[in-house]
Design brief:
4 copies of one chain form a homotetramer. By secondary structure, chain A is of the alpha/beta class. The first copy, chain A, has one domain: TIM Barrel. Chain A is built from 12 helices and 9 strands. Chain A has a 9-stranded parallel sheet with strand order 1-9-8-7-6-5-4-3-2. In chain A, helix 1 packs across helix 2. The longest helix of chain A has 21 residues. The relative contact order of chain A is 0.13. At the A-D interface, helix 3, helix 4 and helix 5 of A face helix 3, helix 4 and helix 5 of D.
Chain lengths: ~300, ~300, ~300, ~300
């Protein structure tokens, strides 16, 4: 059983000015992140611009990241593809590259046509074949697909499927998934914006883009909840809403990268057709992050 | 300040076999409900089939209900209409009929065309004119409209707007509204399915259809949260998910009424074009409710 | 058989500055419209702000309009309500007020819960009871409901259901409805924006808001199609797209009313919470209408 | 100027029982298709399961297909990718493999975050770099993205962008795009279901999955329209609605492949997680196709 308790930021892929991957910046970022209270990293997810990387690039980012991530931190590698067979190939390549687990986004191009049973077959085959544990990944805002709770209930019984990153924002669905699966199946909130509510119904961790920029208050929120300090947990959750929106729904991956630039780490450009932030947006981003970073600096 | 802490079931309107309102059944239902741990009642909401009632019927239901609801329980009357002027008239009629507060659903026919400022003007004028406090009501599943959090932030400053029933299911939005408004502004979860997560971010009460059938476990959940008994709260929340779905998203108002019939209260028919449950659906409903009602009977 | 061939503008309801109905302006507008090449009028539809009128107001508008609409032009009165029983009452009141037919918008508050059979029952009962013919009305942009083509196929066999106003914009659905129903069932395009494509698959008429402002080019398009002058028809259709958007999807009912003001008829205010056009929007509207009105003036 | 007039079926990629590409079946299918009245072929589109192929597979299918497609028929190759840079690489590989043009689906994973300008930049750079003409491809049902008409207006001025395959179903948008672009920019209906309406507003061709199975009636419809035989065109369009739905919205790519099997060509399996048709669905498909194939056989 691979434990998924704690905070796992989905890190962006650094590019230089010609949009090539900047592996040196990946290293310097990781050297800083590994000093933070993080249980591990998701590499090659939505915030990693995985869809904009070639297959070989996706694998190389994982291999290089592994060199800088100690063994006591999990490396969860995005290995999703539209076809089952390609996902199986990717999962194996990621395991070879050093991933502790793979996270597989729902196939989605034909999403509206896929019945629940198609997802069950897809993930079941991948989990059968994979040499490392599999984490499901549901992110309707990008995929237009909402992995049905009944498919999750069935898939949770597979010994090689250890959990789900649920980014859909329905805490009711998180409660249902926790209630209908064994304790071994671990639900991760896909965003810091609903981490406390998700904890209240049984989530064990979080995969927050915001943790790339400010891990401490998210970690503190988790600890406050575990300590039943409900007022403090609520106040921390409240403080995360606007900063979190700035690096996710409001400004997207470009916002997350700009935030990294603003705190002295490396964000850099996004790959076209994603667009960089305008100057006014950069200022709005900075204003939103400021209160959180001040608090964060004080508490760390 | 009108306190909205606690459980406020949105009660259905009983019809006899020719779809006329059965006021006698309204009385017998209320006589039972007032013995339950409820802070008050929402009358003439979505579950009250308000849109299927004439204006005079809507008012008479409130007037008759008031006769059977003691003054220490709140009667919150649905008074929404598509136009601001009609909503003002309805709010006054409801106040005259004995309502302690009015709840105003977002106007929605032209919803996609309405900017945030239109909602601010609409609710502001109604609150200016109303002799009783106003509760906002956001229910996207029925209206196709999601009242923007920034409009709520502005409206929360109006002295005659005391809270919002938020049925949209985004606990992130609930957290944001709590964080951005004064303590006097009270947020109610619009469904039992996310009551615990909503409490965790600062909601003070709930308007759950399920409470028409099983108020005790919802009340117990609330008390468990207030007592920081987080495991018990989580288990109670888990037990509510499927029964709640059966009287809301899965079977709708007809499901809620069938559930009342199944526990020996009066549900009766819905108004056409709403359709009664099929026999298999009635059995599925009963199977879903059974565990909850058993527990509920034991604990009461 | 009531023929629905030709152009039927859905007229707005004129209000004075305090939002009361201005029946004198209704008269003066109608006196001008009846000189245009129109087969009749839809009164009390979406563009008539019917949802913002009281029940008595809705009936009085129809009664007053009838005084100024000669018998050789059809008056089709909006009589929809959320419940079947209220719709039946409204249809009878509209017939008494002088309507030649009633148009019934799909019930929609519980729309996502309504199976195809609920619509069949709803419209069937109304058509059974109505003393005047019934026209179905599908307008997903406002209702969030798309009346299923299979329900239309069944309803088209009812002797008192004579057609449908289809505003959904799927010409494929229009083609399907024409193909699957008898010739007696008449399909009307719900907008000038797809009138020619709808004619090409068998629609017989149109209910265009734009015809309140510029009926001639829409009439000319119809005649060009009937005369198989396909290039001319296409050019006319092209000329309607932007002006039509300005009085529908872009600026809504407020745009339609502003356009009437701009051509020297009476538009006047909308009822709150609908909002008046800003000055820049009024200018954009005027710019969009100008080419069409110039051509229209020349051809009439 | 590459002319796009006529019928261009988007052909499926044949797989054998282990889901490997069956190039021999591709050859036998093409040998039959080239005898039909088709202006060319779209290879590696949505119906070609391009998202389920590896990059090398996508290129090889085009190279092999070219061997069996004479030079007087266009080969339009799908070359879309999520990033601009990858799309440029793919376009060049497809040109080298023998494509006469490339068709580029809208990037979509980050679709909701992409402003109109991002699409303009994306397609502009690809068209700058491509050695063969570029066709835009808008297919909201799969992508969740609707390429804005104003972006198309700008892109249509690029000398290397020759047209768009519009599968969104809004004929109003097609009319707008035709009206707002020069005659050199060619709009193709993305489905047989709205080919006649699209022709009526200026489309010049069609990319219909149904043409893989029954090209003749679609070709006849086109000729009837060009000959201003409007009744015949309308009847042909009506006859296509249900068969077209069976190989697109109703049963998807698996339906298209099953239809090929039913007419004695090769459909074969889909790649997982797409699912094969159930036996009842196969029968429903056959029943829907039968009238069309009978007519088609008689007319050819």
């Amino acid at each position: 059983m691979l434990p998924l308790h704690g905070i796992f930021p989905p890190i962006p892929t650094p590019f230089d000015s010609d949009e090539s991957i900047d592996f040196e910046r990946l290293r310097t970022n990781l050297e800083r992140w590994v000093q933070w209270p993080l249980a591990g990293f998701v590499i090659g997810g939505s915030n990693g611009e995985a869809v904009a990387l070639s297959v070989d690039e996706r694998v190389e980012v994982v291999a290089r990241a592994r060199e800088h991530i100690p063994r006591d931190r999990l490396l969860i590698a995005g290995a999703g593809a539209e076809s089952t067979r390609e996902s199986i190939v990717m999962a194996e390549r990621m395991a070879q590259a050093g991933a502790d687990a793979v996270i597989i986004v729902t196939p989605h191009y034909y999403g509206p046509r896929l019945p629940s049973g198609a997802f069950i077959q897809h993930y079941g085959r991948i989990a059968d074949a994979s040499s490392v544990p599999v984490v499901l990944y549901n992110v309707p805002v990008y995929t237009g697909v909402d992995l049905p709770a009944e498919a999750v209930r069935v898939l949770a019984e597979h010994p090689n499927i250890v959990g789900i990153k649920e980014s859909g924002g329905s805490v009711t669905k998180i409660a249902q998934m926790v209630a209908e699966t064994a304790d071994e199946f671990q639900v991760l909130a896909g965003s810091a914006s609903f981490f406390l509510p998700a904890l209240s119904v049984g989530a064990v961790g979080c995969v927050p883009a915001l943790a790339c920029v400010a891990a401490q208050p998210i970690f503190d929120l988790w600890q406050a909840y575990l300590g039943a300090e409900l007022d403090q947990a609520r106040q921390l959750q409240a403080s995360l809403i606007q900063p979190n929106a700035s690096v996710t729904s409001r400004f997207g991956v470009a916002g997350l990268k700009a935030a990294l630039d603003q705190i002295g780490m490396y964000g850099g450009p996004v790959r076209s057709p994603l667009q960089p932030l305008s100057d006014p947006d950069r200022e709005a981003l900075a204003a939103t992050l400021r209160p959180l970073l001040t608090v964060s600096a004080q508490s760390s």
